[in-house]
Amino acid sequence: MTPREPNIDTSTWLAGVISIDKSSDPIWTWLNYTDGRPLTVVPLLIANALGFDATYPVAEGVGIVCWLFTLVILYNTLRWLSLSALRALIVVLPLLTWLGTTAYHDHLAYNSEAVSVLMLTAGIGAYVYAFHRRDLPADNRQLSVVFWLSLGIGLGLLVYAKFQNVPMGLVIAAFLAYELIIQKGWKSLCWLVVGGFMPTVVVNVYFALRGEFDTFWNNYFWYYFYYGYSEEFSKLPVWKRFSPWRVGSLMWQSYAIRFVFGGWCLAVLVGFLGTVKKLSLDRSNRLLLFAATFLCVTFYAILQSGNPYTHYTLFLPMPLTFLIGVLLSRPSATQWGSLKNVVYGIVLVSAIGQGIFNLTQRQPLEPLGYDGIDQQVVKIIKENTHPTDHLVIWGYADRFYVYTGLPMGYRWPHTIGIYWPSAQHDIRVKDFLADMNQNQPVIFVDLNGSLINTEGKTEHQHEYFPPIANFVKQHYQLIAQVNDGSPKGARIYKRK
């Protein structure tokens, strides 16, 4: 576990934790300085409250804990379906070997998928526990109001971990509602719906009381709407985002998970051939329909934005494993003889093969090639600030908040939402200037056009945006220019 950035997304969440920890208004900061995903930073905040610093090794450790909780819930869900302890363990084995041996940075790094998959797995487990466990009574009346209200709240909170969770959350909610309707569980259904809306109602009231109602909808809805349903962030036309080639390229792009993805897909195919004889809406087929629908909607969620980020595929292992478990637990699975053992064999071989490959091929995670230049910038920033001073990075290099330990002076750790063409450009400029006036960051760093910046060209430097340029000229002066081989390098400004 290196103290240097393993993945840019991890820096985003650690920057949020640092900002919340040093804020005089932590709730507001938690809801507004976390990239519209406040629940993603909650596990990191818990670790911070327990005395762990906001560092990359700690974040990776927190990610491991999240995945372990996911595996425990998934394993128990498979046991509820009727699988024996050994068979349930075999089904989750590919997940265990992949997570235990991967060295791929997009899988190692702490990101919003770790929390999202945990929450979705808990939702699936609750659905199975309520309606499809092997020791299920004649009806579900033994489940209390607290269960249904809590489950509704959990589903309603999914959007605050990641907007991509919404389609899968709606699938879980729809199947829960259908089961309650056919059982005439109207009271339980009412509490489920109330719980689902409760988080958003509470957050909206909070923003409205602060006179920031529009801020919530701009940052929590419209930003992600444009992200997923326009060509603002991906130039790939929306209708081309769901091609089979894109599915395959995302799933098999990384060798660190390629074998188990192949095994899962083959196991699902054999499972359907062996167990699906006729379809109806009886209890067993409803569970299969749920598992298959959830998987299909998960594919939709990872493809919708059109971006080729392999960490999106972290959504897939859990629903694939769950679907295999459902196929193996179906009553008709006892009639397909050796094919059932073939499925277990495929799962075992893919798990062992992936583990051996990863262990023989993995290499230590090295610091970024420009780490030396990073540390020059960090040294200058630290020499000109105190630990509670705010920092603003004009560009996309969230790691500097982590390296310096300074809180964000602007509610987003990166400023691509301002200098990329966007329907929200004017809103972002307004928020930027308001935050700069309120937080009065001591240091402003322009990295656009430099080699150490992830996204942002020379034409995206702050002086090309008149309102930003005027503000910086009025309040800041250039104190250092770190050469990284680009025309201007990293330019560091200090508040006058």
Describe the structure.
60% of the residues lie in helices and 4% in strands. It is built from 21 helices and four strands. A four-stranded mixed β-sheet has the order 1-2-4-3. Helix 5 packs antiparallel against helix 15, helix 5 (85-101) packs parallel to helix 16 (338-361) and helix 13 packs parallel to helix 15.
Please describe the topology of this protein.
Elements (H helix, E strand, L loop, with lengths): L7 H14 L4 H7 L9 H8 L6 H25 L4 H17 L3 H4 L3 H20 L13 H12 L9 H17 L3 H24 L3 H17 L14 H8 L3 H21 L7 H21 L13 H13 L8 H24 L9 H13 L7 E4 L4 H6 L11 H4 L5 H15 L3 E4 L19 H10 E7 L7 E6 L1
Parallel strand pairs: 1-2
Antiparallel strand pairs: 2-4, 3-4
Helix pairs in contact: 1-2, 4-5, 4-7, 5-15, 5-16, 7-9, 8-10, 9-10, 9-14, 10-11, 13-15, 13-16, 14-15
Estimated radius of gyration: 24 Å
- Mean pLDDT, all residues: 92
Strand content: under 5%
Given as residue ranges, the uncertain stretches (5+ residues, pLDDT < 50) are none
Largest β-sheet summary: 4 strands, mixed
